[in-house]
Amino acid sequence: MAQSLTKIPFVDELAAIADNMYRLGWDERNGGNISYLIPEKEVAEYIDVTNVMRTIPLGFDAVELVGKYFLVTGTGKYFKNVKGDPKTNLGLFRIAKDGATAELLWGYVDGGKFTSELPAHLMSHIARLNVDPQNRVVMHTHPTNLLAMTYVHELDTKKFTHTLWQMSTECIVVFPDGVEVLPWMLCGTNEIGVATAEKMRDARVVVWALHGIYGAGKTLDETFGLIETVEKASEIYIKTAHLPRSNTIKDEQLVELAKHFNCNYRKEFLDIE
Hints:
Blueprint: H1 9-23, E1 33-38, H2 40-44, E2 54-57, E3 69-73, H3 79-82, H4 86-89, E4 90-95, E5 101-107, H5 118-131, E6 137-141, H6 144-152, H7 157-167, H8 171-174, E7 180-182, H9 190-200, E8 205-208, E9 212-217, H10 220-240, H11 251-260
Parallel strand pairs: 7-8
Antiparallel strand pairs: 1-3, 1-6, 2-5, 3-4, 4-5, 6-9, 8-9
């Protein structure tokens, strides 16, 4: 028999992550959004998957995701409120057979809907699932130092990644695929969704210049940790960029790290022949 969706682990987990992201100052006001792909078997343990509360147009063709279930933060909702009232601030829906409609099964009880960034999320899910069938999470947030870094660092994928890798020994291990960088684009559009998804084919992190970051992963913890590591490296850069550098992690040392931890890193991002 279906139970209350607010009592199951994946809802509590998403709420806790959202609360922590707000606490860290990454998601001011209604900034940021999370989408979590949930297997039907898990969903069916808690709600009646045949009871469609209402349908909501997606605004683009998501035919590749037909029948899949997503738990998604709502548009205009504040991360600080998710933990206390998940039924208002989150919604769980299934992609309908037409590929263009969301079938709401739970949540958005105030008449709301999913984040305006949903096209970018679902397009990124499609891209990442083609690379890694175990991908379940796409997370968009506004980490302070990463955002600041996009104002003062050249917006070149190779150079941006190389700088981040040099900021901390763990970086090339945590994100050996580097970070992809997009120039400023209008958010909430299919155009930025397409551009983000294209970058997601090569990396799990996409930087939206002067805006924030997209991260993808198998679990909420993994995805949060990925973004957390990028943000830490950005913080070190911001704190040291204006100072003379006496020491740095050399490219030869980055190669040594990657070999030791058996990381398939983006070799073209290093200046080694």
